[in-house]
UniProtKB/TrEMBL annotation:
GO MF entries: methyltransferase activity
Annotated protein name in UniProt: Class I SAM-dependent methyltransferase
Domain Methyltransferase type, residue spans: 62-157
EC number: 2.1.1.-
Keyword annotations from UniProtKB, A to Z: Methyltransferase, Transferase
Domain of life: Archaea
Signal peptide: none
Species classification: Archaea, Methanobacteriati, Methanobacteriota, Stenosarchaea group, Halobacteria
Top-level class of the enzyme under EC nomenclature: transferase
UniProt GO BP: methylation
UniProt organism field: Halobaculum lipolyticum
Length: 256
């Protein structure tokens, strides 16, 4: 387990500048760098019933915050306190830059989601986007998310959809096994020393793991990737299958 975690942490330190450049806007031309919150109402698959009311005044933590887009976006929605946790120092460097760009209040802390450097019962809201599929010990990460949330606190967990991950979109064939939870090693760039290690749990396994950690799953969403969400497949040269298979799965779970 520790070997996979260390491999992923090294990879993120190596990949961070390039990964964050995908997010960057042309700020010289007046564009703002994106900072979407998982609680934005107009986000694909946005969280009903009333995410804005839940965010204003809440204490919020983002787990595996990367470049801090979710943390900064949620601070801008009115959260009272915001903490982002990530194990990559390089990713956190970008997160602090984004925070300073927007001038919001958010604290970024280096730590592992399976061993959070945070007190018990400290938050009303938690979220994690595209991070828990890299965590070898999912049960421990979910137990930590539950520990830092207050009773009734909401956890929004979003992951790449395991069916999409098993698919080759160009050939419309399964290149992986939906039922194989990994580890699956991916070479992001031949120039990097480290690989990305992924664990593609099934939707049922993810839902059951949340329940086992003490969460009540009260909403689940599967949605297509943001760039295709509002587009017409007929006007696009992207593979049709991107409109037919969800890109991500998102759970809204309440800590009990
Ligand atoms: C694909 S990025 C997503 C970042 C951000 N949530 C977003 O949506 O852009 C995954 C992030 O998870 C972090 N991560 C992966 N495993 C982690 C762990 N065990 N503890 C803390 N952070 C982790 C990585 O460093 C990376 O920043």
């Amino acid at each position: 387990m520790a070997r996979y975690r260390d491999e992923n942490r090294r990879l993120w330190d190596e990949w961070s500048d390039t990964f964050q450049s995908y997010w960057n806007a042309n700020t010289a031309d007046g564009e703002l760098p994106p900072a979407p919150s998982p609680f934005d109402t107009d986000r694909a698959g946005g969280m009903a019933p009333d995410p804005l009311e839940a965010v204003a005044g809440a204490d919020y933590v983002e787990l595996g915050c990367g470049g801090g887009q979710g943390s900064v976006g949620t601070a801008r929605l009115g959260a009272d306190s915001v903490v982002g946790v990530d194990f990559s120092g390089e990713q956190l460097r970008h997160a602090r830059q984004l925070r300073d760009f927007y001038g919001v209040d958010a604290r970024f802390v280096q730590g592992d989601v399976t061993d959070l450097p945070l007190p018990d019962d400290a938050f009303d809201l938690a979220s994690s986007e595209a991070a828990f599929q890299m965590v070898p010990d999912l049960d421990r990460a979910l137990a930590e998310a539950h520990r830092v949330l207050r009773d009734g606190g909401v956890f929004v967990l979003s992951l790449p959809h395991p069916l999409y991950e098993a698919l080759d979109a160009e050939t419309r064939t399964l290149e992986g096994n939906y039922l194989d939870a990994g580890p699956r090693e991916v070479t992001v760039d031949d120039g990097y020393e480290s690989t990305l290690v992924l664990f593609d749990r099934t939707v049922a396994d993810l839902s059951n793991a949340l329940r086992n950690a003490g969460f009540e799953v009260n909403r689940m969403l599967e949605h297509v990737t943001d760039p295709v969400a509002d587009a017409d497949p007929a006007d696009s040269d992207r593979p049709d299958v991107l409109w037919e298979v969800p890109r991500s799965v998102r759970f809204r779970a309440v800590a009990r």
